[in-house]
Amino acid sequence: MAGREGGNRQQETPAGVGAAWAEELLEHLRPAARDVRKVVAWLSGAVRGSVALQDAAGNLVAGTRIPLDEGLVTDITSGRIASAAWESHERHLRLVRVEHPSHACVLAVSRRAPFDRRTSDVVTQTAPVIELLLTARESTAAGLRLQRATSDLRLAILQLLMVEDTVAARRVAAGLWPGLLDAETACVYVVESEPAARDRIAEECLDSTREDALVVRCPAMDGHVIVVSPRDTTGDALRSLVGRHADTFLGGSVRQSLARTATAYGQAVSALAVAHFRPDKTAVYAERTHPERLMDPEALRAWTARLLHPLDSLPHHTRAELLATTRLGLEFTAVSAAKVLGVSRNTVRARMERVEALLGTDFADLTVRAVVHLALNTRIGLPDTPFARTTGTCGPGLSDLLSGPARTWAQDLLGRLDADARNPRRTLRTWIAAGGNAERAAQALGVHAQTVREHVRSAEPVLERQLLAAGTDLYEVVLAHLLVGDLDLPVLQRST
Question: Which of 27-31, 288-292, 376-380 is predicted with the least confidence, judged by mean pLDDT?
């Protein structure tokens, strides 16, 4: 279709003049140079005019906007015509249809001089190049959307496992990864790298495990990749991966039931701290004697049932949600727990405050946190036998549990600190009583807060436990102080 005003005649140039433009155009198809905007800018210079690439709705995709007849644009984008030309005394216009995977576009070129054969060829040959680049961009965008959706789905499965909803986790996983979570137990691994390298490491984790594992970019730690796998070969594959990369570390849990994924995750993070000091940069959580294993199991279960009884009246889903959130909130900060669970930190705090109210206690007290942590681990650690449902006040109390072999274990553990002339044991006891606050502990001891921190930090390798970060290690040390009587028993509404 062509239109003319004023009887202007086109001046044509023989084909082949300036044929170097074709090579320049092909250069834009190289992987490193694929950019629709650069091609449009190149076309503008090649024809010495203005160029616009717009869609059917009039949105400018690239170039500079040119006034166009809407009816003519509609005819081209709808497929009624493939191209059009229009001329006046002041400008000459060419419009060409450009195919797009989802909708057609219009390539409009405007110049003061008439279109000769060369410029017409340049416009005609540029259109399919733009089509190729638009198709490639759309395919890349679709691939990225699929990757993000798959990544979000993996995170959703992990979050369901973290709150002990294994049924829903299996149901979600079955569609894309059949059989992935069919096993009753699994190990959790955490691979740590520089944040900038995490995406590449995550892809290598997927390749190394052949998608026989749940690989998730940790929502709380930018450099962490979480891997949940029931396969025994996963550990070897990940160790090999870590061996190939500098500044990459691996921590792994012992095998746990799927319902204890949160516990296994805590173990993997604890092992990761040890991995930083290992020549091979890997570590598996060391199974050691835990205080609850030295307590009378029947008495421990009865005490746990009494302590957590106020939550029994809640609907099952609500109760599981509160318990799972509290377990994570006691292991990590509210911010980290919120990111892992996919909720806001205010939601985490609100759920924990509700549990505090139901139990009639205060989580600001480290001894309370340690005792409730003990109860939560007991509840999930021995799932085969149902807990007794008791509403009375009789039964074993916390003081009854803190005796026997567990007390001997505590004396041996804390006794490791007695050889230090600085008396870090007293500092540690005061720091725990102050809720882990170095400033308040320093005031009570009459020393500088940095001294308190140094004493606590120096106790970590002696006790072989992390103390400055909340979690199982710290709570075991707190329980040890309760067992030997160095700290008073916390006041709990139903456990004493």
Answer: 27-31
Q: Which two tokens stand for residue 170?
A: 């299996």
CB 474 within 8 A of CB 480: no
Which segments within 154-281 are labelled E, that is strand? 185-192, 214-217, 224-229, 249-252, 256-257
- First and final C-alpha spacing in the chain: 92
Q: What is the structure's pLDDT at 479?
A: 94
Q: Quick one: pLDDT at residue 14?
A: 37
- Rounded CA separation 45/395 (Å): 88
* Exposure class string for 310-341: b at 16+ Cβ within 10 A, else e: bbeeeeeeebbbbbbbbbbbbbbebebbbbbb
Whether 61 and 100 have beta carbons less than 8 Å apart is answered as no
Q: pLDDT tens for residues 108-149? A: 999 988 888 888 888 888 888 888 888 887 777 666 676 777
The separation between CA 400 and the C-alpha centre of its own chain, rounded to angstroms, equals 42
Cα 399 vs. chain centroid, distance in angstroms?
41
Handedness of CA 367, 373, 379, 382 (dihedral sign): negative
Q: Check: pTM over 0.85? Answer yes or no.
A: no
Q: CA 48 to CA 45: how far, in whole Å?
A: 5
Residue 84 φ then ψ, to 5°: -155, 155
Question: What sign has the CA pseudo-torsion 436, 437, 439, 443?
Answer: negative
Task: For residue 449, name the pLDDT band (cuts at 50, 70, 90).
Answer: very high
Whether 245 shows a pLDDT value over 50: the answer reads yes
Rounded CA separation 480/474 (Å) = 10
Residue in 329, 306, 307, 326 with CA at minimum distance from that of residue 318: 326
**pLDDT band with cut points at 50, 70 and 90 for residue 208:** confident
Strand pairing partners for 215? Answer: 227
pLDDT reported for residue 5: 39
Q: Indicate the pLDDT class of residue 363, thresholds 50, 70 and 90.
A: very high
Strand pairing category for 214-217 and 60-63:
unpaired
Q: How far is CA 381 from CA 10, 77, 374, in A?
A: 87, 65, 10
Element (H, E) at 98: strand 92-98
Tell me what pLDDT residue 292 has. Answer: 82
Place of tokens 């319902």: 259
Strand order in the sheet with 92-98: 2-3, 83-87, 92-98, 105-111, 50-55, 60-63
Instruction: Tell me the two tokens of residue 283.
Output: 């570590």
Structure tokens at 135: 């198709």
Residue showing tokens 């294993």 = 293
In angstroms, rounded to a whole number, what is the distance separating the alpha carbons of residues 328 and 320? Answer: 12
Examine the pLDDT at 366 and tell me if it is beyond 90: yes
CA distance 302 to 370: 18
Where is 107: in which H helix or E strand?
Answer: strand 105-111
Taking the CB of residue 75, how many other CB atoms lie within 10 A of it? 18
